[in-house]
Amino acid sequence: MKVAVWKILPVASILTAIASPACTQTCTGATCADRYSLADLRAVTGGPGSYVPADATGHIAGQSDQGRLRALAPAGTDGLLVGIPDASKLILYGAALYLGTSDGEIDGEPGDGFGAAVSSQTQLVVGAPTVGNGPTLPSVGRVYVFPYDRPTLGSGTGDAAQTVTGTVAADALGETVAACGDVDGDGLPDVLAAAPGAGSLAGRVVLLPGGSTATSAADLRGWDGDVAGDLLGHALACADFDGDGLDDAVIGAPYADSRSGVGTGAARKAAGAGSVRIEGKDGEILRIDGSQDDAYLGAGVAVGDLDGDGLPDLLVGASGRVTVNAASDDLTGSVHLFSGASLRDQRATGLTGDRIKDTATFTGDNTRGRFGDTVAVGDVDGDGILDVIIGAPGSNTGSTGNVGAQTGAIYVYKGPFGGLQGGLHDDRVVGDAILTIEGARVYQRVGESLALADLDGSGASEVLFTTREQP
Ligand SMILES: [Ca+2]
Ligand SMILES: [Ca+2]
Ligand SMILES: [Ca+2]
Ligand SMILES: [Ca+2]
């Protein structure tokens, strides 16, 4: 059962599920997956073209005693934060990435998973999802909010301005985090933090208000997944979609069933179609559902003004969506852009669920590629207009060409998108990408983690990504 396997992914061991047949091509035995647990960090600088990881202009090698580099987030306009949860570290790289040296770090406690998630838009927020509350309550999880000030990196978690801890074993609070603007209307920036393990993996997202003295997630307002296995909060973002001047929470639940019936039967819900909820200060603003079984809509989310009309737009990955073969386990994936203006229009006419229409579609082309597992927004070609960056970590487009090889790929599409040309729907295929990065070896999983930051000050963002390597 594919759905069951993927539903346990983020909270249980990712390594379990990706100890795939591809592994047997280069290693054997029970430790096969572990041999790919390292990661290197690489940067590709902006010119159009096709790249492989070895083309990277900056490179940090993973260290065998530290484990996998996992979370990436820009730090200001010229730095990159890298979370290494197995080593309980968050490291800052500025332009020094090119020299292989860091500009500082924050250390968590051994075994707490500090650095599994990081977000840096308004404050520095770091998740530590395997923090336990004594021996009987493992992985309740914790979220730290630091006053964002680069020179203070080098301190410990004791310098956090706010700390909130989960209360239920295996909730894994902090598996995903988002540093937002003001959501609740008091003028202070707020934080979203997901506990995807809550409710037997239904997932829960809490709002940590700026200035709050709450230390327990049980005391915070939040949103819950509909049923066990939805994984609400697997992806998070924030922007103002209803125009009230306050940020709204954008919450992906990639394994949610559609809320209403689909197809001619109308009663049957699409299983694992995925959903994205937009939640405002006073309640749900909109919910978008996938329209296909196992589409995994909401696997990745990002926001930005991608059509240039001044309103934030929503980019959503549906990394399980069937786009190549009719087989239900195709897992090719697609990514959907919903313009903010279009969402307001559709909301005004009462549309919701799988009837919400996108304004641009990006379609993957690789069976099991999981195109859209990660999505990001940034100006890669330096023309001042935001571009779309899409990761397909399961892709087998690299040197092996074998389905399941997971060499991985990243695609960059040049903006603007949709809406500017008379509102025509904007369809883009993989061949339309202006920049591609393809893994060169089995199981390199390019696109698994990605971020944009202008580390060399050129005005164009580098594409920053991890690769898995054998030690
Ligand atoms: Ca606030
Ligand atoms: Ca709002
Ligand atoms: Ca827009
Ligand atoms: Ca651009």
List keywords for this structure.
471 residues, mainly beta, five-stranded mixed beta sheet, 4 helices, 5% helix, globular, disordered N terminus, binds calcium ion
Could you explain the architecture of this structure?
This protein is globular. It has a five-stranded mixed sheet with strand order 2-28-26-25-24, with no helix packed on it. Strands 20-21-22-23-27 form a five-stranded mixed sheet. A four-stranded antiparallel sheet has the order 3-1-30-29, with no helix packed on it. With 471 residues, the chain is mainly β. It has four helices and 30 strands. The protein binds calcium ion (4 copies). One calcium ion binds at residues 182-184, 186, 188, 190, 209-210.
Condensed summary:
The protein is mainly beta and 471 residues long.
Write the layout of secondary structure elements.
Blueprint: H1 2-7, H2 14-17, E1 38-45, E2 49-51, E3 58-60, E4 71-75, E5 79-84, E6 89-93, E7 104-107, E8 117-119, E9 124-128, E10 142-146, E11 162-165, E12 176-179, E13 191-195, H3 198-201, E14 204-208, E15 222-224, E16 235-239, E17 248-253, E18 275-280, E19 283-289, E20 297-304, E21 313-318, E22 334-338, H4 340-348, E23 360-363, E24 374-378, E25 387-392, E26 409-413, E27 426-429, E28 435-438, E29 450-453, E30 462-469
Parallel strand pairs: 2-28, 23-27
Antiparallel strand pairs: 1-3, 1-30, 4-5, 5-6, 6-7, 8-9, 9-10, 10-11, 12-13, 13-14, 14-15, 16-17, 17-18, 18-19, 20-21, 21-22, 22-23, 24-25, 25-26, 26-28, 29-30
The protein binds calcium ion (4 copies).
Low-pLDDT residue spans:
1-25, 28-34
Classify the secondary structure makeup into a structural class.
mainly beta
User: What's the tally of helices?
Assistant: 4
What is the global morphology? Answer: globular
Strands side by side in the biggest sheet:
2-28-26-25-24
| Helix residue percentage | under 10%
Distance between the termini: 32 Å
Radius of gyration: 20 Å
Q: How many strands, which pairing sense, and closed or not: the largest β-sheet?
A: 5 strands, mixed
**Structure ligands:** calcium ion
- Which whole number gives the mean pLDDT? 85
What's the total count of β strands? Answer: 30
- Proportion of residues in extended strands: 25-35%
